[in-house]
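Aim 2 progress update. The chain analyzed this quarter is reproduced below.
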Amino acid sequence: MKVLLTLYGEERPAQEFSPEEGEAEMAAWGAFDAAAREAGVLIACEGLAESHTATTIRVDGGQRRVTDGPFMETKEQLGGFIYLEVRDLDEAIAWSERTPWNKDGCYTEIRPIMDYAAWEAEAAGAEQTAS
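Predicted structure tokens:
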């Protein structure tokens, strides 16, 4: 099963980290990356640029509206993602717990990647039930 771990937390600019904290953070992420690659579960693991660099697109009634910044103004922002292929939700949770992210008010959401074949089968079953 493929899952996307989305990483949320309060943004902290690089200036708030001492050089030692920055090195420790990068080393922790490097260790997570190496372990997940060695286990064969890692597809991608990336941090995102600061939220002020985001562009939000909305299309309503055929009209496109482009705005600067994130979709919602909140203290917590989407800071990165990890894309894994794991056996089940329990394994996804275990990998999430191994990240250096889940501390100091940061949290991770785990969502399965949509299984299109299962969705189509479910839709076809609903159509047959309705007729």
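Residues 2-115 form a domain with the Alpha-Beta Plaits fold (CATH 3.30.70.1060). The radius of gyration is 19 Å. These observations will guide the mutagenesis experiments scheduled for the next reporting period.
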